[in-house]
Amino acid sequence: MKGLNKILVSKAELQHRVKELGAEISLDYHGQELVLIGILKGGAVFMADLMREITLPIGIDYMSVSSYGNSSTSSGAIVIKKDIDTDIRGKHILIVEDMIDTGLTLQHLQKHLLTRDALSVKICTILNKPSRRLVDIKIDYEGIEIPDEFVVGYGLDYAEQYRHLPDVWIVDTLELGIH
Ligand SMILES: O=P(O)(O)OC[C@H]1O[C@H](OP(=O)(O)OP(=O)(O)O)[C@H](O)[C@@H]1O
Ligand code: HPA
Ligand SMILES: [Mg+2]
């Protein structure tokens, strides 16, 4: 496809790491009431794979949020476009994301969910791009660290395209005229 010339993380690598994360989460939350919250749209693909690698009884739900995405407004709240309908009081929450980049989305969301009296709110992401971080955020379960490249596939989009690709590809931003 135009602008997609290089796979950064293969389907096989993703599958392998998702299995490991599922096993780790299953051990850590044994005997506890856990709800996974997948963040739409990007997180949907990872969420579907991860939940099937967890061997505990869990609840699942989804949210769609947007953050005011630059540092000058980083103190602003997130806008919730679609909320969960699960009552999370007294439950352990694991937010499931495809990517942590600046960290703004997750920082706001984690704080927000804690105000709803969850017992704990932790973060799981399949991809982490620490080079672009603007806020200090603790990632409890990290899949794969990637360099500062714009990537698509496995849920991630460019202009709403390419989310369905099973591998994670580097976008040649020059070739696509993105700056
Ligand atoms: O760490 P940040 O800089 O906040 O960026 C990460 C967020 O950006 C992407 O979502 P996006 O807002 O593009 O929504 P989408 O999942 O619908 O594509 C990604 O899925 C994360 O949610
Ligand atoms: O590399 C990326 N690709 C797609 N969406 C994103 N949102 C933050 N980083 C990225
Ligand atoms: Mg996006």
Automatic annotation (TrEMBL):
Purine salvage pathway enzyme that catalyzes the transfer of the ribosyl-5-phosphate group from 5-phospho-alpha-D-ribose 1-diphosphate (PRPP) to the N9 position of the 6-oxopurines hypoxanthine and guanine to form the corresponding ribonucleotides IMP (inosine 5'-monophosphate) and GMP (guanosine 5'-monophosphate), with the release of PPi. Residues 14-158 form the Phosphoribosyltransferase domain. It comes from the Bacteria. It is found in: Cytoplasm. GO terms for biological process: GMP salvage; guanine salvage; hypoxanthine metabolic process; IMP salvage; purine ribonucleoside salvage. Belongs to the purine/pyrimidine phosphoribosyltransferase family. It is an enzyme of class 2 (transferase). Its EC number is 2.4.2.8. The keyword Transmembrane does not apply. Keywords: Cytoplasm, Glycosyltransferase, Magnesium, Metal-binding, Nucleotide-binding, Purine salvage, Transferase. Its cofactor is Mg(2+). Its main location: cytoplasm. It catalyses: IMP + diphosphate = hypoxanthine + 5-phospho-alpha-D-ribose 1-diphosphate; GMP + diphosphate = guanine + 5-phospho-alpha-D-ribose 1-diphosphate. One of its GO terms (cellular component) is cytosol. This is Hypoxanthine phosphoribosyltransferase. GO terms for molecular function: guanine phosphoribosyltransferase activity; hypoxanthine phosphoribosyltransferase activity; magnesium ion binding; nucleotide binding.
